[in-house]
Amino acid sequence: MAHSKNYQPGTESHDSRTAVLQDKDKPMDCSDQVTTEDNQVIQQLCEVTGAAYDQAFNAFIAANGNVENALTFLTNPEHITDGTSQKGMQTSVVKNCQTSKDDVIDLTKDKDERDEDLEKAIALSLQESHSSAPQGITAEEQDISRVLEASLIENKPGLKRKRGDPWMTFVDPVNPHERKRSDGTPVGFKNVGNTCWFSAVIQSLFHLPVFRKLVLHCTLPDINQNNSKETHRISFMQELRKLFALLIGSKRKYVDPTKAVEILKEALQYNGSESNPGNQQDVSEFTHKLLEWLEDTFKVETCAASSKQEKSSNNPVMELFFGQSKVEGVYEGKNFSNLEMFGAYPVQVQGYNNLHDSLEGGMARGEIEPANNEQTHKSDQEHWFTRLPAVLKFMLSRFLFNQNTSRAEKIHERFCFDTTIYMDRYLEKNKDITRIRREEVKKLKERHQLLRNSLDSYTNYGTGARHSHIQDILDSSLQFVQSTDPINDSTCCDVEMKPVIPEPPRSHGMTSLRPAPRYISLSERQSIEACLKRWRTEVEQDVQVISKSLKEVEESISVMYDDEEMKKVPYRLHAVLVHEGQASGGHYWAYIYNPTDKQWRKFNDITVSQVTWEEVERESLGGYRHVSAYGLMYVDGSREDQVLATETPDHLPQYLQRLVDEDNINFEKELVEWDEKQAAAAAAAKASSDDKSKVAATVSSRPDLVLDAEASCAVSPHDHTPITHLSSLQDIDNLLDKMCSNEKLRLEKIADEHPPDGLRDLRLEYIGHYLILCGAPQYVVEWTILKQIVDDTKSRDDSCLRIKRRAIELLNKPDPEKLEELNKWKEKYQVFERVNSCFLTGLEHLHNNKYKEALPYLVHAYTLNHKLQDAAHPSQSMDEALLAFCRRQCFLELNEHAIALFEAQDKTTLCDGLDLVSELVVPCIPSLITSPHAEDREAVEQIRNRWFTYLGSSMLDEKRREKLQDFLPKLLDVTSEGHQEIRPPPVLRPTSSRDLCERFTKAMELVHANMAFSAKA
């Protein structure tokens, strides 16, 4: 849609629309009073909501051009303000784009009053339109309209869903050993924000040794600052060479591609694209740009070639990645033939089951539509490959534009491909034999369709909505006949040999409780049984014959090209590029085959792991949740030795080898420094634990906090000379004051030096940090420090005991008002700890894919945290955005888990899936709908869309459809009334501050490393 969410019509169009209401004497055509652009919007409102044009027009006027408000008027009349609906107006002001002479609402008032009158007008009009329910519109259709309403709003320009969150940017683990490369494991790529697409494509190319060698040893010219295109290309190639060198020889687990990504994005924007790589179109654009740069880079080295053909053959990138196809046919009675170069060959997924079917459908002879529809000549064309590259890339088109919803949608259907494919049938040199076999396949498929229809007439027999297998119908008929005992035949006949018709048994006021014949003679039963059994046998034989013929035809089709003549050009699968998510965005990774150890590996940003082919199939073929392949990379079997020849770090160019060595030295230095710090910390901790002197402070709960309570017992606060006793109460008070003051200064210094975005949370380590950061009153902080002195003083020395007793006295004699404030802050901190405990428990469950267990904890954490929020002191609560994000992720993941159960072949699990949604997902909807975060509201609409798409699916059986229709209304009820609240989480186990701190640090490393969530890259 061309309008943004906050669309405001121009002055002229607004005045012209207002004139419709002001001119009370002249009926007007609504469509004549709006601009062409506005009229298109109103037409789309009609299509989406099913409303008449005049209703959509009135809603658009009342909403002042705001599409979202107009949709609300049309689909939810109950949302109109009470002041509007409760006014006692008796006449509709706006009806059929005419105004009444008697009842006119004045729209010439001030703006506020005019807006109110407009709302009154539209309210009355909509009340009238909704008072008589439109015939033919079911409740189900109205529900779908609401879903489409949200979809329409969501997909307006400027409202594209965010595909990353600030805290999801990858942060390096503090411990460098966690960043160290394991022996024999390939190096990954750091995700620097929406760059998983870069990692997937580059890794698949890097693991082609011949390409690696080309990049590492290519010669690049100096950068010409006056040529932006050349600057981007050369700069990118320089960075790509560095990345490849590090991928070969680095001792790090992953490398940083930031510079290369930034150059690439700048280049795409320079070419006029506003793309932010993330959907398949953007990734295809990136791949195309990359191949273009590579071609240009090596074209410079081969420019001495005289002809175009020689240039192509001499350019190693062209030989490696680019092929050539011929398009020939007849157009408007004239023959034509064109040669085309291709890099990544597009393959359609919609309407095809596998790669060969799609290639056949796109390359075989087919009709084309001429420019002049009056042409009587037939126009058609067919494609042939004249030259295939060493590395053949297919881009699977898994996205389409839905005209009904005006947005792109991803195709999740299953699409199969083999690890080895033979391309002989698509080569021009084999076109004669291929054409013959295609005709044979065409005839076989026609026969296959006839047999399939014939078999279907047996297995889906009947009229109306219900169809059954004929064998089942005959079996049921036989059971019906046999359900009543037969009556013996009577041989008593009169002289005229008239048969005696048995009388039916008399009814005793009650019919049979089960279906059965009321009476049947023995001969009738025997005759009917014989017929039914004979027919059942005949049907069974017919079905067997048809099924056998079907298998024979399918076998003939499958082996049509399975002979030596058509298996001379094999291509082996090298890499599969996978996308998880929807059309608007998602996460990318790559599966790459290593011929050396014959293993598949998954390259998922920083993580590289070995996988089985079964996992590759499960997450590549489609039909499994939202994961499917979007790119395939095959290597020519006859050139495998050339393409997959191994390369070692010893063969790196000198300056690249120096780059790798320097980076490894720096990393080794970082490892040594870390180990030294850890050893020093361990030695200090051991020395501290072994020190049994009187002045050693024993701090059990906070090892970083050292109070000098016991040391001060032996040293005068004035002259720092040892004393045997404290002479007066004033001395003790002075000492306590000084200790509190020093500790407070120390806490403030730590708070100032601690980075706000670090992996630690000081507030969890000690309540004093919490109070300082929250700006608590000074006496509250001092009281907390005194309490800690009492708890930490373990010595039995007389002076220490006197200090401890005095501190206890001060703690037990607070001012009543101060005591209330103290208790309030203690309660706040306890709630803060509970929020963190719930959040961490939920996050741990979420990371372990235990979504059902995780959601109650995350919801409870968000609710508790809301009680702590204070705009003036944000440190009193956890980061609300982080809590909302984790709650939302769990919400979406749980829904996907429920959908997987609903789609499972085992029908016993479909109720489990719907129960999960009813018990956990639905109770969350009211709070998400009213959330201040737009992403929460988008998540609700995303879930609704996922479930409502099943209504139009032909894959659902009757049981699933029935359950779904009972369940869907719950998703549309946005009120909390009638909804059961989400179950509270189990009682949390007691936890110490140290435990909370350790869990929090690990959780933040997990979140920042983007390991727990891969739905957004």
Automatic annotation (TrEMBL):
Record PROSITE patterns: USP_1, USP_2, USP_3
Domain USP: 187-637
UniProt xrefs under InterPro entries: Papain-like_cys_pep_sf, Peptidase_C19, Peptidase_C19_UCH, UIM_dom, USP, USP_CS
Region Disordered, residue ranges: 1-30
Pfam families given in the database record: UCH (PF00443)
SUPFAM superfamilies: Cysteine proteinases
SMART domains in the cross-refs: UIM
GO terms, molecular function: cysteine-type deubiquitinase activity
Gene Ontology cellular-component annotations: cytosol; nucleus
GO biological process terms held by the UniProt record: protein deubiquitination
Polar residues biased stretches: 1-11
Record field: compositional bias (Basic and acidic residues): 12-29
Name this protein carries in UniProt: Ubiquitin carboxyl-terminal hydrolase 25-like
Species per Swiss-Prot/TrEMBL record: Actinia tenebrosa (Australian red waratah sea anemone)
Gene symbol of the encoding locus: LOC116303019
